[in-house]
């Protein structure tokens, strides 16, 4: 029999542990890319804590017992604390867990349909982040060139790779075998959503990667490796957090205003669109499932739009 809370409502805590193969949270997390699991689990832990007055986490909450009143209350509470974008991501995680509960025959599909029938979360249209200009990227690479240690060449190669739209988690997963020195191709394996894709480095970027490889050597393993302070290269993968710290360090040295690793993707997509590359190709290179996602990176100004419409013919009849 379920326990009760001080409020008098039935407890949502599991009365006994579920096997991992039957636990909706465990099943859902197992289907995610490794880099996403930690963030999603944090979101689910926060939701479980809200629902149980801090008594449960994602693994001890009985998700199958949730009904519309619970999910509606969660969305309202989250909206009071977080941005619409964050709430949308957290509620998506909640829906996915409930969907796994249905698939595992722990929750009635009718209860699931009611529980997820929530008002749409309105998000603002303001874009976060920024695009870097050519001078800023040149300054970052110059800061790397002034570093005589292998870290300077490694960081220049990292910037060159991020420059072609890779996510930082994708960049650190690259191995030596993923780089084709003759074509400049990079094989991105198990990117976001578990998808593979191929991207290409321009000639200048290829040179930077090859300069790094001349120091790294041809030992199989991670393409980008940690470099100790005394210049020793450690043959293991870097972490996404290390990428963030490296870029912050080079930005300080170069006098470049604050930016995020993801801003390289914004720059990549925006510049390709500005160069007239079709949105489908840009989406493919950036690893987006839908071209519509790429549209948010379009930071072309009003003058570009004004110029574009000048190509439209407007036939007019000649006056008699």
From TrEMBL:
InterPro entries: DNA_brk_join_enz, Integrase-like_cat_sf, Integrase_catalytic, Integrase_recombinase_N, Tyrosine_recombinase_XerCD. GO terms for molecular function: DNA binding. Residues 127-310 form the Tyr recombinase domain. It holds the Pfam family Phage_integrase. Keywords: DNA recombination, DNA-binding. SUPFAM superfamilies: DNA breaking-rejoining enzymes. GO terms for biological process: DNA integration; DNA recombination. PANTHER family: PHAGE INTEGRASE-RELATED, TYROSINE RECOMBINASE XERC. This is Site-specific integrase. It comes from Symplocastrum torsivum CPER-KK1.
């Amino acid at each position: 029999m379920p326990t009760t809370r001080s409020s008098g409502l039935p407890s949502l805590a599991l009365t006994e542990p579920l096997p991992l193969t039957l636990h909706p949270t465990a099943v859902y997390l197992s289907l995610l890319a490794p880099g996403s699991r930690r963030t999603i689990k944090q979101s689910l832990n926060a939701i479980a804590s809200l629902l149980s007055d801090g008594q449960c986490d994602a693994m001890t909450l009985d998700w199958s017992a949730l009904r519309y009143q619970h999910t509606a209350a969660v969305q309202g509470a989250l909206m009071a604390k977080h941005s619409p974008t964050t709430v949308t991501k957290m509620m998506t995680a909640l829906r996915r867990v409930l969907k796994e509960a249905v698939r595992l025959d722990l929750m009635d599909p009718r209860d699931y349909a009611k529980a997820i029938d929530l008002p749409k979360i309105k998000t603002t249209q303001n874009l976060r982040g920024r695009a870097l200009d050519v001078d800023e990227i040149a300054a970052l690479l110059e800061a790397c060139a002034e570093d005589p240690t292998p870290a300077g060449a490694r960081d220049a190669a990292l910037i060159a790779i991020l420059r072609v739209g890779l996510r930082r988690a994708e960049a650190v997963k690259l191995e030596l075998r993923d780089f084709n020195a003759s074509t400049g191709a990079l094989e991105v394996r198990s990117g976001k959503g578990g998808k593979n894709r191929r991207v290409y480095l321009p000639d200048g970027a290829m040179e930077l990667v090859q300069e790094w490889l001349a120091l790294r050597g041809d030992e199989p393993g991670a393409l980008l490796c940690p470099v100790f302070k005394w210049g020793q290269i450690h043959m293991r993968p870097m972490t996404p957090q290390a990428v963030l710290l490296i870029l912050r360090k080079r930005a300080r040295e170069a006098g470049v205003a604050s930016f995020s690793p993801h801003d390289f993707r914004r720059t990549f997509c925006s510049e390709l669109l500005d160069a007239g590359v079709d949105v489908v190709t840009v989406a493919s290179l950036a690893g987006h499932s839908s071209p519509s996602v790429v549209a948010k990176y379009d930071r072309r100004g009003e003058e570009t739009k004004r110029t574009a419409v000048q190509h439209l013919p407007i036939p007019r009849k000649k006056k008699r």
